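Quick log. Single chain, no ligands specified.
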Amino acid sequence: MIGMEYYIIIGVISLFSWLASNTLKRKFKKYSKIQLKNGMSGAEIAEKMLADNGIFDVKVISTPGQLTDHYNPQNKTVNLSEAVYNQRNAASAAVAAHEVGHAVQHAQAYKWLTMRSQLVPMVNVSSKFSQYLVMGGLILGAASSLGYWVLLAGVVLMGMATLFSFITLPVEYDASNRALAWLKNKNIVNREEFVGSKDALKWAARTYLVAALGSLAMLAYWVLKLMASRD
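-> predicted structure:
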């Protein structure tokens, strides 16, 4: 039911995901050693960037874990991991400013962020059921009428997840661009600190790119399976 090419795709995706994730961790560890000359913590940088953009209804809070930083548009909070919240280095500056970049997108109704937010409920459903539907279609027999439609439903849900992952790319890249522009224009970081912040955000963005390409590869595989079942 599942060809060898499926496992090859899984292996390649896993390899590139591991490489991107490991490189990201190494970069953040490296740039965490570059202490900011201004002595500002990640939390202080986030609060200043919010104020500079006229945003006063968003709270900056600390959240447990590593690389758990995110912006929550529902309760308007910039959630910074404990290290980023408290530390005063180039990596913390980059992450804090990036997450505030999402808050700025939200305040300005950035179209890609709005589109991604609208897809969240559907993606939550697709992530739970797409694999079950695909496997169910294979078990029933994709060549049969019922099996084909079950498999088709699973592929459609996968397609929505893939679309979501690609819409995420401009959202993440734009947030990084906003963060870097603000860090530079407001002289929050010096030349060396800016280079570190930029490199860290570049690798963070690449993890999203790898995820999107991996999702596309899996979708293409199942679409081909679906088409072959009708031959």
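The first helix runs from residue 4 to 31.
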